[in-house]
Amino acid sequence: MSTFTTETAKLWMAMDIGPLWIGRDEDDPLSPASIAKDDIKNEVSVSENIQTITAQPTAFTSDAFRLQTTSSQRSVSPHDHAILTSPESHRPKTYELKPIKRAFADPGIVEVDSELLSEAQKADWHTLEKLVSRCTACKALSQSRLSTVFGTAERTAKLVIVGEAPGRDEDIQGKPFVGKSGELLENILCALGLKRGADVAIINVLKCRPPNNRDPHDNEIAACATFLNRQLELLDPKVVVLSGRIASHALLKTETSTGKLRGSVHHISVNGKEVPTVVTYHPSYLLRSPTEKIAAWRDFCLAKKLLLDLV
Ligand code: SF4
Predict the structure, then answer these.
(1) pLDDT tens for each residue of 47-97
(2) Do 282 and 78 touch, CB atoms closer than 8 A?
(3) What whole-number distance in Å separates Cα of residue 193 and Cα of residue 175?
(4) Which residue has the least CA distance to atom 2 on ligand 1?
(5) pLDDT at position 10 over 90
(6) Mutate to test the pocket of ligand 1, among 136, 141, 164, 230 (most ligand atoms within 8 A of CB)
(7) How confident is residue 9, by pLDDT bands cut at 50, 70 and 90?
(8) What is the CA(222)–ligand 1 centre distance, in A?
(9) Which of 132, 162, 215, 221 to mutate to test the pocket of ligand 1 (most atoms within 8 A of CB)?
(10) Rounded Cα–Cα distance for residues 88 and 90 (Å)
(11) Which of 208, 257, 262, 267 is deepest in the core (most CB within 10 A)?
(12) Sheet strands side by side (includes 239-243)
């Protein structure tokens, strides 16, 4: 029987696997004393059992449409209806909900504002965020978005995670990786002893949510690349993690699947330097395919090891 270690405990916690059974005669691996001793020096084995699995786009759901349909279509919960008709909300008692028209069947039309993009190429972080909020290059995305999702970072961050694009929760909150995916990612980072913000910057290839969470079109990725590249220049990362197929295809310029790309150290050029880069599955894919969590854990351990080797 294999020994139960702090690493095992952290892995289980991060991956939301349980329950934890701790022998009476053993040290509690989750006690503060045990955890303080640990600085993740494990050798990471990354080559075995690589599977070729490509993340699939989520099923078609039109959140905006569903929220705006008539109550007879049973899309507004009794709770929502109570709020909508409550006297405090100063709304009319009967609330006529109509579908809103958005460019769902969009062909991905892009009209780049070259002046705005050239400004972005030399902007500081704060100015860049403002430029992104003004950007309407991708017609469908800028019309349907609730907010632009610029990213979270602090100057101390040495690891940069690049995701795909905002989803529904991110669009609502204006922050990357929130909701269930964000929770899973935070758990993984926490298990690695890394703090989102101070240690880890999180940005996306696209700053606006594609309608119905469809895959970004190539011209949309190209239009947003100026913002992404400038973010990377400003962050000047020591290590980059590409989370999911869209991010790895955009930055490694390849069509190879995530399953084949992960497990190796790649490099991307930032500020004229070759930055070690690890590919892993997107947390939303891990939520749909929990058996891949162990592979993702190995990828993050590899990224942490690279980070420690460079310090
Ligand atoms: Fe502009 Fe990027 Fe949003 Fe497209 S995704 S509208 S390029 S900020």
Answers:
(1) 333 333 333 333 333 333 333 333 333 343 444 444 333 444 444 444 444
(2) no
(3) 22
(4) 224
(5) no
(6) 141
(7) low
(8) 10
(9) 132
(10) 5
(11) 208
(12) 200-204, 159-163, 239-243, 273-280, 265-270
For residue 196, the cross-strand partners are: 200
Decide which of 73 and 217 is more confident. 217
pLDDT at 153: 83
Q: What SS3 state is found at 224? A: helix
pLDDT at 154: 87
Strand bridging mode 265-270 / 273-280: antiparallel
What's the pLDDT tens digit per position in 187-201?
A: 999 999 999 999 999
Measured between alpha carbons, how far is 217 from 221 in angstroms, rounded to an integer?
Answer: 6
As for ligand 1, residues whose beta carbon falls within 6 Å of it are 132, 135-138, 141-142, 148, 206-208, 220, 223-224, 227
134 alpha carbon to ligand 1 midpoint, in Å? 9
